[in-house]
Amino acid sequence: MDNNYSSKESMQETTPYQKFTAIGKVIDDDVFQFDMGNDFIPFRRNIDFISCTETSIDPLILHLTFIKNKKRWGYPFRFGHLEISEKDFKLISEKMIEV
């Protein structure tokens, strides 16, 4: 499974967004590059996304174990994909799929 975190609402935006915006399952082993324009060509995976609600990271920061420094919590997100524990994934996904 995969969570998607968005620091901004769009690449051109400067206002912080800071939400988990998507959740899904990686469906194969393919890794490919996708041209986003302006010489930005990030790597991507094929994901089967599920319906969810965007969720602010703010109330989760103190509970997420992959965020070691709670004051500089954005650091782990600087590198794109990161592996998180099943516990952290469940916490995030339960908030995103709440009814």
Automatic annotation (TrEMBL):
Highest taxon listed in the record's lineage: Bacteria
InterPro entries assigned: EVE_domain, PUA-like_sf
Annotated ranges, domain EVE: 15-94
The name this protein goes by in its record: EVE domain-containing protein
Organism this protein belongs to: Heyndrickxia oleronia
Upper lineage: Bacteria, Bacillati, Bacillota, Bacilli, Bacillales
